């Protein structure tokens, strides 16, 4: 029967390297010396590699054996992780878990959250996807996400299978470039004045559900861009006008990159939620929800 490399033979190599003797290795491993000698010889035969050399009665590892030993620690660690991960999967923990993040919430808490989840559930592959407006709900409906952080307003439809937890309100600030023609206006800006300039918005990522815009007036030209950072850049360059969440707008206002103006019909705050399908039996979700509902995480998503 071939012995080759296994967690047991790598362990034997480690002990022989440390003790320099088959008999001493046998004591450490609680085996008879002949069993250690047999295993060592069988390893060499099966691998076709000389693993041991004798010098003055002291057994030393050959360069090939030292190489195996060097990589062996990694192999043993991998085998142990594999056993633990397989046990988690066997206990019903998901192999994959996806979090959908609404583009208007602050993504800064994600690294800390993923680190905590990965440590608790090492067998699971975690994914983060960014969605825009109804795209967040669509990801949940179509099982492309296990949970949504920052799902906007109320679900487009709910047949009792969606649970939500109020997260907070996202405040918006209207912005223009300091060099934009509207920057010189001191009165409250009316829709008739704003309509002459393009609205800069991020495109709703939904396909099947009705798409929504951050803000655009009827008859107004719209430029769709990839993300909020590009919205800010386009507004700052005077390409168009629009709204940004306060967490992004306030630093830009402080730096002088953009200015704000008072308009007659201001965009209302967007109420956002945690949302998930309540029919899924998920140990990860049961672990995650209490964490997300702490004041620490609630405030970080919004600020």
UniProtKB/TrEMBL annotation:
InterPro entries: LysR_HTH_N, LysR_subst-bd, WH-like_DNA-bd_sf, WH_DNA-bd_sf
Short name of any one Pfam family annotated for the protein: HTH_1
Keywords: DNA-binding, Transcription, Transcription regulation
Tagged with keyword Disulfide bond: no
GO molecular function: DNA-binding transcription factor activity; transcription cis-regulatory region binding
Boundaries of every HTH lysR-type domain copy: 5-62
Stated family: Belongs to the LysR transcriptional regulatory family.
Protein name: DNA-binding transcriptional LysR family regulator
Organism: Avibacterium gallinarum (Pasteurella gallinarum)
Taxon lineage: Bacteria, Pseudomonadati, Pseudomonadota, Gammaproteobacteria, Pasteurellales
